[in-house]
Amino acid sequence: MIKSFLSNYLLFFITLFSLEGYSQQLDCDQVSAQLELIKTYKSNQVQMDSMRSFSASISRSNTPLELFNCLHALPTSDHIKLIYFQDYAPFLMRKGDLESSKKLREQGLQLAQQYGNLGLEHDYLDTMTSYYINVSKADSATLYINKQSAIVNANPTSFNNVAWMIYHRRGEIENILGNIQKQGEYYELAWEAMKKNPESDSQRGFLLYLVMDFHRTNKNIERQAYFTELLSEHYKEKQLKTPNLHLPINFLLLQNDSPEAIENLEQIIKQSDSLNNFNALSFCTQALSSALLKNNKPLEAIPYLERTISKLDSANYMFSHTGERDLLQQAYLMAGNYEKAYDVLADQKKVEDSLRNSEVLSKIADFEVKYDTQEKQRIVDQQKAQQKILRIVLFSGLALLLLVSLFLYKIRQKNKILAKQKQLLEVTVDEKNVLLKETHHRVKNSFQIVSSLLYLQSEAIEDKEAQIAIKEAQNRVRSMVLIHQKLYNKDQLVGINTQEYFDDLVKDIFESHQFEATPITYNTQIESMILDVETITPIGLILNELITNVLKHAFPSPSLNDKMELRFNKKGDNLILEIEDNGIGMTDNIQDSSFGIKLMKALSKKLKASIQYPPTQAKGTLVQLEITRFTTLD
Amino acid sequence: MKIPTTVFLVEDEPLITATIKGILHKSGYLVLGEQDNVPDAYNEILKLKPELVLIDIQLYGNLDGVDLALLLDEQNVPYFYLSSLADPITSIRIKDTSPISFIHKPFTVSGLKNKIQEAWNSYLQRESA
């Protein structure tokens, strides 16, 4: 799809460039060949685009009318006709074939309407308007300018750039009707419309000149000066040496009536006459005559004027019908031929009357009323549409507001529920915390009572062995008492710091031990970590047994060198607890049956721990506890 | 011979009271009296004028150890707290009182002995300084 589209455009550009080459020497065969080439393009739009530039090339050629005639004789589809009719019709008109020109315009308009292309419809309406202005039929011109205007008003954005044309045409129609003041008003409006739209730059010089010339003709010095200024500014910007088309020729000639210029103009008139270029003929004749009259040569001007008038009359081309007659009348007056002057005046009156009879005027009035009604209807429709949009916007705004408030209401409800739930949760959490504190308090108190019971009993017993047994029980409870003394909350989990606990426990055991004379010194190397109660309780109990063993058995004859060391650290995934002393060392036969050993074995199971006695370098004992099951809380 | 320091005990658990009395006696303190509620304890303290008071926070009756501590602060009687209680509200109330030390329950024999000794000695040093 895209590929074919691109190739189409490539061909189109090739056509464009090839056209530039032979635009000056086209003949009928080439026109036919070019048309066949254009027909090969798949897209209608591309065909139309290439036709447009081809049609322009024909217009620029030496024999445009002949070439258009050739083209017209060939079979073409409607969309191609639509393009070249626009250029073809004016040529027919310029050569005096008004009927054919009109027919092409009408056919083009019909095709454009069928085609549904508003832009082309507008353009053909404009050619119709232009046609009727050229033949000075103000009523028909008004009919078409109204239709044209309706399209522009209905689509203000897309027809922005041609809005000025409407006013320009209306100005021309008023000129036909002789309403000079209204013509001026329309011209000014045309300029106002164009000013708003920088796109219409190519037509700017034309319109500015037109308005300026109008004011000059009507001796409105102030407005003329204003537009002269704008025009000079425009040409200065454009850096163009000569203004567009025929009107500025007239302008330049009247500015400079030197003999050379007059001679040059006479030649152009001759050529225009022979080529039936009516526009040029009319304007040049007027310009030349004005110059001749100014130089007091009325007799030289008369033949030109009479020739042009008869020529234009025979072609029924009445674009500047009054201009030539005005000048002719002046010429006869200057020449003193009053009879002829009167005849011209009478003739002029007759022509003007035919253009401005009451029938035509009433027709125009009818059209105007019809147009006004249409315009009013259009404005009413527009207002209705706007009101509808306003209602829709208002309604949607209201709906949106409702929706938003509903949403906000729901959010508020939800927040209320959440707040309530949060409150409930907070209460629950508070209750749980209070309960936990209370439980801790009771557990601690119970330990205190157990501990007190054992203490009081040990104080009361006389029997030595029983006393020792109670004392040992008391010591074992102590390791648990110390745990509960240090119990604290950490993120709602209960844990014990190893360093604090082991230091306290060792200190307590050593202090409660009754040393003979020289106390045993001890040293600790404890890695600080938080362990849960389930883990620390058996460790504490084992540690109590181990230290008690050291104190009881390692040093039977105490000396100052007696030392014990406690080490606790993490090694890989396991915890290692080591107790080392420099005492007498272990006897070979460990009393497996002793309660302390049994207790340690039982507690080790809970920790999935092994108790080992690795050999030491020096004398003494090393006990190593490797714990594999534990829970840390850091 | 050193004159023993006089102590008054405020504790509502008889077993613990007996234990503390035993330990204090062995450590060379003279226990002047004991009570399990604030009004009686306060009256006796004013009467007996002990050098040191040990106060459990949870006591028999509506008033607790902190209430007594506030009264003792007014009388400039030095005291220890001896408790396992640490709920948030009590913790905040405790901040308004000026105990010599806080001994946590459960305590061990040597732990209690040392703690009282240390705190009392440092208090005496502070006072004499």
Description:
The complex is a heterodimer of chains A (634) and B (129). With 634 residues, chain A is α+β, with helices and mostly antiparallel strands. Chain A has 23 helices and 8 strands. Chain A has helices spanning 2-22, 28-39, 44-60, 64-73, 78-94, 98-115, 118-134, 138-154, 163-177, 180-195, 201-217, 221-238, 247-255, 259-275, 278-294, 298-314, 321-335, 338-355, 358-460, 464-486, 498-512, 533-554, 595-607; strands at 488-490, 493-497, 521-526, 530-532, 563-571, 574-581, 609-612, 621-627. In chain A, the strands form 2 sheets. A 5-stranded mixed beta sheet of chain A has the order 3-5-6-8-7. In chain A, strands 1-2-4 form a 3-stranded antiparallel beta sheet. The longest helix of chain A is centred in the middle third of the chain and has 103 residues, at 358-460. By secondary structure, chain B is of the alpha/beta class. Chain B is built from 5 helices and 5 strands, in the order βαβαβαβαβα. Chain B has helices at residues 14-26, 38-48, 65-75, 88-94, 109-128, and strands at 5-10, 29-35, 52-55, 79-83, 101-104. In chain B, β4, α4 and β5 form a beta-alpha-beta unit. The longest helix of chain B is centred in the last third of the chain and has 20 residues, at 109-128. Chain B starts with a strand and ends with a helix. The mean pLDDT of chain B is 91.
